Amino acid sequence: DYFVDDRANGTTENSIQDPKDTNLLEQFQQDEQTYALTLFSLGHKLALDKCKYYIAAYKRDNIRHRHMSIQEYPGEVRIRDSFDGEPVMIKRLEPNQSHESLGCLIAISGEMLEQFETLQDKVHDWRNRIVVSTLTGSEGLTAYEAYLKEAMRYVLPTSSLSQARCQELDVIIAPILLNAVSTHRNCSRVILYTPSKVGGFGILNIWHLQGGEKIKFFMLHYRRHDTTGQLLKISLRWLQLEAGTEVPFYKLPYREIEVLLT
Predict the structure, then answer these.
(1) Could you tell me whether strands 99-101 and 104-106 are parallel, antiparallel, or unpaired per DSSP bridges?
(2) Backbone torsion region of residue 97, taken as left when φ is above 0, otherwise alpha when ψ lies between -120 and 50, otherwise beta
(3) Which stretches within the chain are classed as H helix?
């Protein structure tokens, strides 16, 4: 039987054992082949048809860096799943091509189109079910809070949806929520998103929901000092180095320094 443990391996240029005779792809292939044969020797077998990989190689266009495509940085990786098996070419993904990991669609370039379309389909399906149902207003709110909101909260910490895309989702959801609180469906959405202490209904729009989930995710792992927290700290230090400013980059207007950051 195949055995897959969702392990993610990575190889960087500074981990190449013999830089004179081995390039990055060759070192990566050696690392992955060792892992595949180790699994096989323990009675397991790597499912090569499920394996995928990216190459994060950057190219500067004017000021900003961008990920190089497969055409710009060609190469392939072939791995055997057993000692006597035939080498199989592993699928390589473009930097902007998403892969699914624990229900989230992620691309190393930060492209969120596929994740957005998946969320959009989920929101449309929820709305259509609510429209043809006989739920009361309070039950409709419960359906949003217990199902749709929680489904979105699961993926939003790892997503980077733009404000415009978040508003596209809000446009689908808002009429249902306005109807649930006994307000005309064409009424301004401001009343939904205004805090209850000043007369609104205190419902977070998708943009704010995403921001809140990201802050929770960041603070949770940063304070735990776990593996994810360590990666976040490395990323922060790298961003500071890229920005090249004497003050912390997070104290500067993002719109002014974003062109300096990858």
Answers:
(1) antiparallel
(2) beta
(3) 24-41, 113-131, 137-143, 149-155, 163-180, 190-193, 206-224, 227-243, 254-257
Burial (CB count <10 Å: 0-12, 13-18, 19+), residue 214: middle
- Residue recorded with tokens 């240029």: 13
Three-state secondary structure string covering 89-149: ECEECCCCCCEEECCEEECCCCCCHHHHHHHHHHHHHHHHHHHCCCCCHHHHHHHHHHHHH
pLDDT tens-digit profile of 114-161? 999 999 999 999 999 999 999 998 999 999 999 999 999 999 998 999
Which pTM does this prediction carry? Answer: 0.81
Q: How far, in Å, are 10, 25, 194 from residue 30 at the CA level?
A: 12, 9, 56
